[in-house]
Amino acid sequence: MKPEIIIDHLSKTFGKRAALRDVSLHIQPGMFGLLGRNGAGKTTLMRVLATLLHKSGGSVTVCGIPIEQSKEVRKLIGYLPQDFSIYPGMTVYAAMDYLGILSELSKAARKERIPALLKRVNLEDCLSLKVKALSGGMKRRLGIAQALLHDPQILIVDEPTAGLDPEERIRFRNLLCEIAENRIVILSTHIVEDIEKTCQNIAVLDKGQIIYQGALQHFIGNERGLEEAYMKQMGAHQR
Predict the structure, then answer these.
(1) Does one domain contain both 196 and 104?
(2) Which residue intervals define the domain ABC transporter in the entry (predicted)?
């Protein structure tokens, strides 16, 4: 089964408001950046891909499976939402173990995967800590661990570095790049630097529409960096 997402003329409306309009994308393995200002429709798109929202029109297939087959699609996707919260009164290990049970992982699989994942996100010394005692950066790393628990082919992360200090943001970006070596990682953010440091292919979303998709370097072109190219594109789109 080839890891890929094909989005064709996707639309999503809430009443009379169009949150996504005629969105078409082809996403393949590696880091894929979805860039747009707050309110551009990024979170709506991520939630449709994660089968948490129903689309209004168009089609989406995940690894060849139509998005309507939500139970099968969820087996392929790990999702870290922007506002991640998880059983604050539980210990880190207990919370992961409970999520493993919900994912229908066997006891043997949970016993093997949970310590390995916590080590990968540098939380191996926090097994007995309660989730509410973790810092913001540690909670985000726990969020990645829980999203990878069922070994998905696709990882979707929505605004993962917002609110983190610069050092923690760098560690988090490096972790995502490691994870993307053998799967699709979609990084949705309004923070230009996160895209510039991690992604080779991007899409730019504004007012629910894709205004650019392709190679990062082609988008930058002759500009001095992604920030300048992005601001210039946004200015042109407003006219």
Answers:
(1) no
(2) 5-232
Whole-model pTM over 0.85 = yes
The tens digit of pLDDT for each residue in 111-128 reads 999 999 999 888 999 999
- 23, part of any domain: yes
Sheet bearing 184-189, strands edge to edge: 77-80, 154-158, 184-189, 30-35, 201-206, 209-215
* DSSP summary character for residue 130: B
Expressed as residue numbers, the domain containing 61 is: 1-76+154-239
**pLDDT computed for residue 84 by the predictor:** 82
Q: Tell me how far apart the alpha carbons of residues 57 and 62 are, in angstroms, rounded to a whole number.
A: 16
Partners of 189 in beta bridges: 35
DSSP bridge partners of 17:
14
Task: Please give the tally of structural domains in the chain.
Answer: 2
Residue 81 lies in a domain: no
* Beta-carbon count within 10 A of 230 CB: 23
pLDDT, tens digit (0-9, with 9 covering 90-100), for 165-183: 888 888 888 888 988 988 9
Q: What's residue 155's pLDDT? A: 95
Q: Are 19 and 37 in contact (CB under 8 A)?
A: no
- Residues forming a β-bridge with 201: 32, 215
Concatenate the DSSP letters of all residues of 65-124 into one string: EETT-HHHHHTTEEEE-SS----TTSBHHHHHHHHHHHTT--HHHHHHHHHHHHHHTT-T
- Mean confidence (pLDDT) of the chain: 91
